[in-house]
Specification:
Order of helices and strands: EEEHEHEHHHH
Helix content: 40-55%
Number of domains: 1
CATH class: Alpha Beta
Low-confidence stretches: none
Distance between the termini: 27 Å
CATH architecture: 2-Layer Sandwich
Shape: globular
Largest sheet: 5 strands, mixed
Strand order of the largest sheet: 3-2-1-4-5
Number of helices: 6
Structural class: alpha/beta
Length: 177
């Protein structure tokens, strides 16, 4: 499960992994009442995340980390949202990983500075289907889930001092597929 935290809209993306293959299960977004006090929105974020966890029963969760911008108040609000999302998952014993927006974009498009639209287009190519969503928060969350899959299925090149795939394979002949 991938989550794109937000205090107004939270995106989610659910994928299933079968060996090296992946498939889209669901994606969507949850809108929160902006008229509610920020603390009440945090409660809604927590409860919504628990609802998604109970509905989809994910094995793992990946969350996009807040980006470092100039507006400290926005970063603080996003950090709080991310925290309650992580707390909801951890309360159900679901392991959580976080990825920077740059890491997610690089994993999906090959460019850390890619636009949301470029990420969306690459997701459609990766899943080989049209992805229907009203908000890009949902496709961002799907990108977070796919990024997590890519990161989890890739051997750590730093292990054994390897700096390239060739070095890794020479250092680990038993790991060849």
């Amino acid at each position: 499960m991938g989550i794109d935290p937000g205090t107004q809209i939270m995106g989610y993306g659910i994928i299933a992994i079968k060996g090296k293959n992946f498939e889209l299960i669901d994606l969507g977004s949850v809108r929160f009442k902006t008229a509610d006090a920020p603390v009440l929105r945090l409660k809604q974020i927590f409860e919504s995340t628990l609802g998604l966890v109970e509905k989809f029963l994910p094995d793992e969760m990946a969350v996009e980390a807040p980006f470092f911008g100039k507006n400290v108040q926005s970063m603080l609000k996003l950090g709080r949202a991310q925290g309650v999302i992580m707390a909801a998952a951890l309360s159900k014993n679901i392991p959580v990983e976080e990825y920077s927006p740059r890491k997610v974009k690089q994993s999906i498009t090959g460019k850390g500075g890619a636009s949301k639209e470029q990420v969306y287009a690459m997701l459609e190519r990766s899943f080989e289907q049209k992805i229907e969503t009203r908000y890009l928060d949902a496709s961002d969350a799907l990108a977070v889930a796919l990024c997590h899959h890519y990161q989890a299925s890739r051997p750590n090149l730093a292990g054994g001092g390897a700096k390239t795939w060739d070095q890794f394979l020479r250092n680990n002949p038993n790991r060849k597929a």
